Amino acid sequence: MTTTLIVLAHPDPRSFNGAWAEATRKACLAQGDTVLFSDLVAQGFNPVERASNYPNPAPDTPFDPLKAQEAAAAEGTLPDDVAQEIEKIRRADRIVFHFPLWWFAPPAILKGWFDRALAHGALHTVDERFDTGQFRGKKALFCVTTGSKEEESVFNGKEGDVQLLLWPAAYTLRYLGFSVAVPKVVHGVHGYHQGARQTALQDRLSEVLAAQSEVMATFDQRPLMPFNADDDFDANGQLKTDQPSHTPFIRHSN
Question: How many helices (H) and strands (E) does the chain have?
């Protein structure tokens, strides 16, 4: 039996993002999955990492998030909201994220979830990352909306290449050992359509919701984002000249 964690990062479950996450939930349940759900805004997840999240912070010592997380993980004193998310992540065979792109990035609450829930000492260590990450063999998928048109969201588009905008979030999961499917993106989702354009949008979004059962049924066949292996890098952590570059974020000099 597969366990699927759905992470929703949108302030209103009545939004299309909320409806899309619900479509994922229904599709997974219909397949016999165990479904875990994190509606980050609804559950009041605190996205801000700070010393006061931990017991007895040292007042005269600068706060070091990695060391604080590592110590709390070892002592079993991670904050309750973080511990609950860690348990879900550990149980999940796959994670499906639902969120809009705001200001060319995921919403702040999802970045804060990465900052806090992916705790050092709990889900990754110095020796457990990338190819040796704890989550090797597990997969993640981003289901994303943009307000921009598809034509604007490509390599030469005015809104920037959406695949590059999502790369940092995908690489965060890669750091933990996850495989990451090529994101599924729905463009032009905003509240300013009127008349025939609004009707066309609603028809298009209804098709996306109806198709989500097929997305989840074929989850394991979805193409993956390519990442360099650990041994593609030299002792200084730089890409070897004879290894491929898969992204402008990690590339050979011109």
Answer: 6, 6
Angle between helices 108-117 and 80-91 (to 10 degrees): 90
Give the whole-angstrom CA distance, residue 132 versus residue 100. 31
Sequence-ordered list of residues with C-beta below 8 angstroms from that of 1, at least 6 positions apart, any chain: 32, 33, 34
The CA distance from 191 to 212, in Å, is: 22
Cβ-contact 225, 33 below 8 angstroms: no
Q: Which two tokens stand for residue 101?
A: 């792109």
Which residue in this structure is represented by tokens 């457990």?
128
- Positive or negative CA dihedral for 104, 107, 113, 116? positive
Q: Are strands 3-8 and 184-186 parallel, antiparallel or unpaired?
A: unpaired
Structure tokens at 19: 């409806």
The whole-angstrom separation of Cα 161 and Cα 187 is 12
pLDDT tens track for 19-64: 999 999 999 999 999 999 999 999 999 999 999 999 877 778 899 9
Average per-residue pLDDT in the chain? 95
% of residues, the chain, pLDDT over 90? 89
CA distance 28 to 141: 14
CB 162 within 8 A of CB 105: no
Structure pTM?
A: 0.94
Which tens digits make up the pLDDT trace of 209-237?
999 999 999 999 999 999 999 999 999 99
Residue type at 134 in one-letter notation: Q
